[in-house]
UniProtKB/TrEMBL annotation:
Any Pfam family the entry gives: HTH_Tnp_1
Species the sequence originates in: Pseudodesulfovibrio aespoeensis (strain ATCC 700646 / DSM 10631 / Aspo-2)
SUPFAM superfamilies in alphabetical order: TrpR-like (SSF48295)
InterPro entries in the record: Transposase_8, Trp_repressor/repl_initiator
Highest taxon listed in the record's lineage: Bacteria
GO process annotations (BP): DNA transposition
Name of the molecule in the record: Transposase IS3/IS911 family protein
One Gene Ontology molecular-function label: transposase activity
Length: 89
């Protein structure tokens, strides 16, 4: 049966390997095949620059809630503009 590894655990193991020491010992300690470790390490090294890139959208729940409120307000204002002068049923 395949084991699922969460991203934080993968990152921690890769960083542990990058800090030095024997990769075989590291893999043995985590019950991981060295080939899998090197695959994770390659992916990590190819994509680690993305940590420093600016994110285009809101990242926190507070940011999302704030954006949601702004959008609700905008929908309300647009609805009032559309209904301005019309009889509301």
């Amino acid at each position: 049966m395949k084991r699922k590894w969460d991203p934080k655990t993968k990152a921690r193991i890769v960083l542990e390997g990058l800090s030095g020491g024997c990769i075989n010992d590291l893999c043995r300690a985590h019950d991981l095949r060295p080939g899998q470790y090197y695959k994770w390490r390659g992916f990590f090294l190819e994509n680690c620059h993305q940590v420093f890139e600016r994110q285009s959208g809101p990242q926190t729940e507070a940011d999302l809630a704030s954006e949601n409120e702004k959008l609700k307000r905008l929908v309300g204002e647009l609805t009032l503009e559309l209904n301005n002068g019309r009889t509301i049923r």
